[in-house]
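Record 1 of the preview.
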Amino acid sequence: MHCPWPVSEWGRFCFYGWSIQDRGKIHEKLGPVFVMVTPYKNVVVVADPAAIGFILGKWRQFRKVPSIDEDWSRHRRLTAPAFNEHMSAPVWDESLKQADGMLQAFLTAGTAGSTTLGKDTQTVALHVLTRIAFGVENTFGEGVGRVEPGYQLSFRESIQLILQRLFLLFVLGKQAPLSPVMPASFQKLGLAVVEYERYVGGLLENERKASNQRTESRNNLMSVLARASDSEKASGRASQSMTDQEIFGNIFIFNIAGHDTTANTLAFAIAMLAAHPEVQDWLGEEITA
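->
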């Protein structure tokens, strides 16, 4: 048994990506499999290859509870229309536009170079995502890094704070971090959750208003979710629709899957290419061949 942080190490596991930073040290201490007990749920952490292979190979035995399976099927049915081959061209075009904007920023910096590569690639990934998911276009130098009037955090900062403290939110919930007795860093996390939902809620409201004012429907993720959900409600099948909170949740999942890994990969790739000019030359030859 271990007492909660800060009395023991428990607080180490409240951070998104803790296992990467830990590099397996906790397993040297506790063994290949251990259970993390929290007020929210118990989490079994497995680092044994044989056990992992068995779990992944026996997915029917290690399946989710039926109610969650039904929810997953409903969410997949409503989100699937937004993902098709027609989206490939807009994704490519927007990626080129954002990459060119980042390149121009690098060139403007000159020999001083860039000290914000991680934020730059995150901006590229988020701008591509907001264009495809929300139909919102931004130039590289503006957009998700800008704090909108009436907000304290930018869209990018709110997402990043939530990602960094994701497990802590699972444990404490959304409201607890806002308590005056919490440390300032916790309160800022609570603010990030509130402002993320405000940002997405505003986009959803704008999409619904725009949908009511035009005859031609758009097929970005937000419009598909709003249209499918509202259609199910209008046809008397509210149980098959999505609540606004579920739409927020889906958008957040696609934010994680759609930008964080991409931004990190781009940042590492650019840094490695800068360190190895010979690889740059080889890559250039492959592209122009």
